[in-house]
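[Q] Does anyone have a clean structure-token version of this?
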Amino acid sequence: MPSQPDTSAAGARGVGSGPAGPRESASSAPGRGAPDAGRPGQEPGAAADPAATRHRSLVTLDHRLFLGTDAVTLATPEGFATVPYAGTAEVLAHPDGGRVLTGTDGVRIAVEPTLYAMLTPDRIAALDAALASAAPDAARTEAPRAAEDVP
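[A] Here you go.
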């Protein structure tokens, strides 16, 4: 399913802290356009993937991050933002496990292990493997972040 950028305050800026923005933006960085609409009662993107792992935000309890077989989806009360692995233009990979995925449509989702429950190194490794297969030229390794810059 093609994703649509989320313009809501929570979806466009998210919650948390760090390089994706101030303490309100570690879940998802700026996007533009409208949130994924999907069909009523049906979750779009990775949220609809039965094999997806679900990760509750440790900062805003009504935000969820889904790591699916084909996409990452951020779900907030305002809507959904999805970055399909095959539609990933750039992945900023921090040595501490943080990832920032940017879709070819401009949707950006921060995957921060310190901000989501059960987002383990094994799950980050699985995400990296899926991205390497679907978008091999998208990864860019970032320099280590100072401890105070890790959300």
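[Q] Thanks! Anything notable?
[A] The radius of gyration is 14 Å.
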